[in-house]
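Troubleshooting entry. The earlier prediction with S-adenosylmethionine gave an output that would not parse, so I re-checked the input for stray whitespace and re-submitted. Clean input:
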Amino acid sequence: MEPALYIVATPIGNLGDMSTRARSVLAGVSVIAAEDTRRTGQLLNHEGIDTPMMAYHEHSPSSVAASIVERIAAGEAVALVSDAGTPTISDPGYRLVRDVQDRGLAVVPIPGPCAAIVALSAAGLPSDRFAFEGFLPSKTQARQRRLEALASAPATLIFYEAPHRLVACIEDLVQAMGPEREAAIGRELTKRFETVRRGRLDELAAWVSADADQTRGELVVMVAPAPSGSAVTLDTELVTLLRGMAEHMPPRRAAKLLAAYSGIASRDLYELLSGSQ
Ligand code: SAM
């Protein structure tokens, strides 16, 4: 195989989702860098692949990434896999990708399942524009702040969430985005108890609270875009920041810069500034 780092997506539940290309790359590389060698070992065993593995995870010292880069520089093909889904998406690997690229070596994506996209594809929410927000902060205050900053985003929001935090997450979403905002939950996707449910946030809150099964397994939470023309609610810190910025630059520029950071439409921010002057 051509020397390169191959970013190989693996199934997120249903082993039938392993692609032919993923299988042949994993069988053909010199070594597989795996987030959890035990877990990947089970997949390789199922596929009848006996390629050697090495551990590469969030806490790996930089020497591990360096040794992978050296192996590719010496002409080897190396695959990167995470526990499930697409490596680097809420999973380790993006620094390794940079290290390999910075050395002038090839990085080859081998596409496959990604829970965020799988969930979005079956949610029935607008998908022409979406923002992947990964995991929300686990501390309540930080989580609520993040949600407030996202409340006016003109795109469907996608979150990964731990099952034991689902009820609190939906309650915080109701608080930040209002009970009527449409949302969806994708649970145990591609697996036996796969469930995709769309509804208003208050309906979803009642549903998950009434059925303990809905807080088991793996979850993706999605929230529909803010209705257009909806009142912009900004937390005090953002408003202070916006006004502070507008003292040092034209209001339109301040609105544009903060829009890129907050996900709030630049027009709404500009109107807020005009109204406050
Ligand atoms: N890199 C992975 C991907 O491409 O989807 C995501 C890794 S992240 C550490 C794991 C999170 O993805 C889980 O906590 C859950 O939120 C989501 N997830 C993974 N598999 C899932 C599934 N089968 N159904 C629903 N959500 C899933």
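This one parsed fine. The chain has three domains: 4-113, 116-223, 236-276.
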